[in-house]
Amino acid sequence: MLKILIADDHAIVRKGLMKILKESDNGISVDEAGHGQEALARVLQTRYELVLMDISMPGRGGLDVLKEMKSHRPQLPVLMLSMHPEEEYAIRALRAGASGYVTKDSAAEELVGAIRKVLSGGRYVSSSLAEKLAFEMEADAGKLPHETLSDREYQVLRMIASGKTVTEIGQELSLSVKTISTYRSRILEKMRAKNNAELTRYAFANRLVS
Description:
Layout: E1 2-7, H1 11-24, E2 28-33, H2 36-45, E3 50-54, H3 62-72, E4 78-82, H4 86-95, E5 100-103, H5 108-119, H6 127-140, H7 151-161, H8 166-173, H9 177-191, H10 196-205
Helix pairs in contact: 2-3, 7-9, 7-10, 8-9
């Protein structure tokens, strides 16, 4: 019997997760915890194969509880669940010892896939998060942010920094406004910038435009 702990302060979420788990595998035993301290106490009392834990619960924060859990049970896989987008907490959770991070708006199939991967000893991250982690590694290796851009993204960055609008860039490159907007979103993400003004300042500071 596979023993899993679900830690979430919303009973309806716990019941929903329990239903997904039971439907995916009949050989599962599930315990529940309504807050972080209760989850920690259960982990210290019972040997679980996996913990599904919300990152935002009353009392001690999920990351704090996660770190203590891993200090007592370093081999215990903990899959973090969150209503927050990946970019807000996922990398922090993985660095704190989580085996994966899944947003609550993910499909049931994705959650089940994440659970199976974590139980097999792997780590689960979405494809978009994997890309973010790759960029972080590149940055750590000494790459400047703009060096992580594709050729087309770099071209669009320079045009944005030159003061061109999305419509003007699209016309010049014979691409749709939607496509240029997608490039812009990727550039902002990779450059960790909030708006065009920050991109422009960076471009001039690094002499990408004259």
